[in-house]
Structures are given as C-alpha cells and as structure tokens.
C-alpha cells in the first residue's frame, strides 16, 4: 500500500480537490499488516467451505470459526477504498485515478466470472452455476468509486457513511416504478440491494453492491486521515475504532436483551454477535470495522517474523486471493482421497455452496491443520511476487 510519507504537513479536504502533482510515497505498515491478517483469516472461511463445516452453529468452536472471518469482507473493502485514495495521491491526477479504478474494477469482474469461478468449482458449467461473489462486488464498487473521486475525500467519506446508514431505503427504490416494470427493474436492482424481486436468472448473488460501495467510499475518506503525523493518526484510529465498537456493544447488547429468545435459542453472546451479513447491516459493519480501525495503531508498532509475513500477504492481496482458492480446492480433493479413497469433485461443483455429506465433514482440528499448511505454502509465492512488484512498480503489476 503506497502512502505519503508520515512527516507530510496535515491537509484539509473541505473543498473539492484540485489536480496535484504526484507525491513521494512510502508504505504504511499498519495497512499492509491489517490487510495481510484479513487475507489469512479469509483462508479459514474458505477451508471451512470445502470442509463441509456449516457457517456457524451451537458450539463455540464452529460459531467462532465462522464469526472471526466476518472481519474479512468489511476490512478488505474498506482498505481497498483507502488504497484507492493513497494510489490517487501517488498519481496526482483524479482522471488517472478514475481510469485506474474503472479498468481494475472491470478486470476484477471478469476474473470473478472466469478464473475465480473455475477455481472455485473446477468446471465450466455456466448453465448450472454463476456466482456474483466478493470480487465481483469489489470490482463494481471500484467502478462506482471512480465516479466519486472528483469530490473531496471528506465528501466521499461522508457519502459512504450515509449510504451505510440509510441502506434499507434502497429496498424501496423499485416501488417508484410502475408495477409492470418491476420485474425488469428487479433483474438489475437485485445486484444493488435486495428488494424481494427476481434477479437475473442463473446467477447466485452473494454480495450486493449496497452498502459495500458505502464501505469503500468511507475507506477512501479514511485515507486522508492516514496522511496525518503518526501520533495523531494513531489517536484518530483509536478514537474512531473504539467509538464504533462501543456503539455496537451498546446497541447490539440492548437489542439482544429486549428481543425475545425461544427455549432453544443460542446463548445471548452468540445472538449478539450473529449480525446480518447479506446484506451487511449497520451493526455488522460496526462490529467488524470498529475493531479493525482500532487495531491499526497496534499493527503499526508490530515487529518480528509474524509482522513481516502478514505484510507480505498484505502487499499482494489479489495475487494471494487468486492463488488461495485453487490451493484450498486441491487440498480438499487430496483430503477426500486420503480419507475416503475418492476425491468427490461433485461435492464442490457449485462452490462456495458446497454439498459435502454430513458424515464426510471434517473435524475442526483437520480444518485448521489444512488451513495452516495452505497459508505456509502461499507465503513463498506471495513473497516472491511482493518483491517482483516492488521492483516493477508500473504496468500490469499495479492491477494484481
């Protein structure tokens, strides 16, 4: 992640930004480490997908195996917005940044529909399954963000927060059209926000674009804070992150206490933490982004081999993403062969919506063992590519 050197003067962004010359840059370690940690946690959830372990359950082990990975998508999208702001500072040209975001965003959409879909499923049966997943959402959000970068970072950030706060109103948008038009509207609008209409046939929509474009825009505005002097930056991160976390604990705690729970309801802690992700609710985003932002100062001070390893992953997150899905998929086939004498590729024909029989599900111990092995394997190609990318710095490597 490129950023302006920490000792640059503090800048304000109340007025629309004018074109600026390219700025000297250095990496902000806290962002690299935070993003690297997100990528590692993401691998837990994707190993879980191929293991057949359900997304949550009554036991603490299964519940928290899923819950800890809830931090991935919000942090990934938020920091992508921050990265866009910092990349724009390096370019010194709003037009160049907008073109970069559109190009990279559309590239991600194509990758989701081609290479990523294939590595999830190891088939090309598009008539049976097409996924609009997290990379699809990330790509389209970049395209939408390209239309906002001509405004000041403060304006973009406030717009992002507003989208998050009022997201439920987007459910009503199709009602503004005549009833006869709503089926056609739904084909497109269901990609933006669930409105109870039929979406595009044959496509599984995992991530809608709202509120995620708001999260990315908020991250873009947050990028301006990362230009502050180190101590001020740390204070702001702690203030914002801890305030968001405290707000979540108060609101979610009150809601958990007041809402009735049935006789077989999970424990109160599970109910409080089990916030809606599809689409991501305000409480879900407070729960995940608050701690993420609050931990950035600790990441900035982090040293040692673990910090170095996480920073390697954080410098090449898309390269890591493109490698980790086929590696986990192959690992699952190997595990099936060793356990059952057959690879059972049919279980993963519509991954990440797998159909592993209950009796073939992995134990949590096996899940975490495969996760650790795969992360270690991923480190070596990621370290090589991070070095190559640092030397190259231009051309196609800026997109991956």
Keywords:
two-stranded antiparallel ribbon; two-stranded parallel ribbon; 15 helices; disordered N terminus; mainly alpha; 400 residues
In a nutshell, what does this entry contain?
The chain has 400 residues and is mainly α. It has one domain.
Radius of gyration: 21 Å
Strand content: under 5%
Side by side, the strands of the main sheet go 1-2
The percentage helix is 55-70%
The 3D shape can be described as globular
Major sheet characteristics: 2 strands, antiparallel
Q: Treating each run of at least 4 consecutive H or I residues as one helix, how many helices? A: 15
Query: Which structural class fits the helix and strand makeup?
Result: mainly alpha
Overall pLDDT level: 91
User: Could you give the order of the helices and strands?
Assistant: EEHHHHEHHHEHHHHHHHH
Unreliable stretches covering 5 or more consecutive residues: 1-25
Q: What is the β-strand count?
A: 4
Total separate domains: 1
Task: Tell me the distance between the termini.
Answer: 12 Å
Can you offer a commentary on this structure?
The model is unreliable at 1-25 (pLDDT under 50). This protein is mainly α. The chain is built from 15 helices and four strands. The strands form two sheets. Strands 1-2 form a two-stranded antiparallel ribbon. The chain is globular. It has one domain (2-399). Helix 3 (72-91) runs antiparallel to helix 4, helix 3 crosses helix 8 (212-225) and helix 14 (317-340) packs antiparallel against helix 15 (364-392). It starts with a strand and ends in an 8-residue tail after the last helix.
